[in-house]
């Protein structure tokens, strides 16, 4: 991922550096398109990092999805709107974590209510 970020930075900023250097060292003026495109491409490099993170990092994708869900921009399909406390208990038995535990007993996981289910007064 680090190499991808460095390469994308170089690809985005090299045309801008070349056009600026050309403009300083040359007596000729560059065409307007040759000055605008490298500038826009270099400024667009800031949006490449989230795209690279999303493509290369599963943890980033999960954190972004969680953030979007909290903002209400993205919801899970087929997710229940409200979960009753009796429906929100899962018992885990026989998983590798349980087998390796000193007691070897099952444990329960409870789903916490989402922030959208909490109403403000």
UniProtKB/TrEMBL annotation:
Q: Does the keyword Magnesium apply?
A: no
How this chain sits in the membrane, per its record, is: Multi-pass membrane protein
Signal peptide (residue range) = 1-19
Domain G-protein coupled receptors family 1 profile, chain residue ranges per copy: 1-53
What InterPro entries has UniProt attached to this entry? GPCR_opsins, GPCR_Rhodpsn_7TM, Retinal_BS
Going by the entry's taxonomy, the superkingdom of the source organism is recorded as Eukaryota
**The protein, known as:** RRH protein
Q: Which SUPFAM superfamilies match?
A: Family A G protein-coupled receptor-like
Q: Tell me, what is one Gene Ontology molecular-function annotation carried by this entry?
A: G protein-coupled receptor activity
Return the PROSITE patterns for the record. Answer: G_PROTEIN_RECEP_F1_2, OPSIN
Where does this one sit in the cell? Membrane
Write out the entry's keywords from A to Z.
G-protein coupled receptor, Membrane, Receptor, Signal, Transducer, Transmembrane, Transmembrane helix
GO cellular component: a single term = membrane
């Amino acid at each position: 991922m680090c190499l991808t970020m460095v390469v994308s930075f170089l690809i985005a900023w090299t045309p801008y550096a070349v056009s600026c250097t050309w403009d300083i060292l040359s007596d000729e003026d560059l065409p307007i398109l040759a000055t605008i495109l490298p500038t826009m491409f270099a400024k667009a490099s800031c949006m490449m990092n989230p795209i690279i993170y999303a493509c290369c990092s599963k943890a980033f994708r999960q954190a972004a999805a969680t953030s979007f869900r909290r903002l209400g921009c993205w919801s899970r399909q087929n997710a229940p709107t409200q979960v009753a406390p009796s429906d929100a208990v899962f018992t885990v038995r026989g998983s590798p974590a349980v087998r390796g535990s000193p007691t070897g007993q099952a444990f329960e996981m409870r789903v916490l209510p989402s922030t959208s289910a909490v109403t403000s007064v």
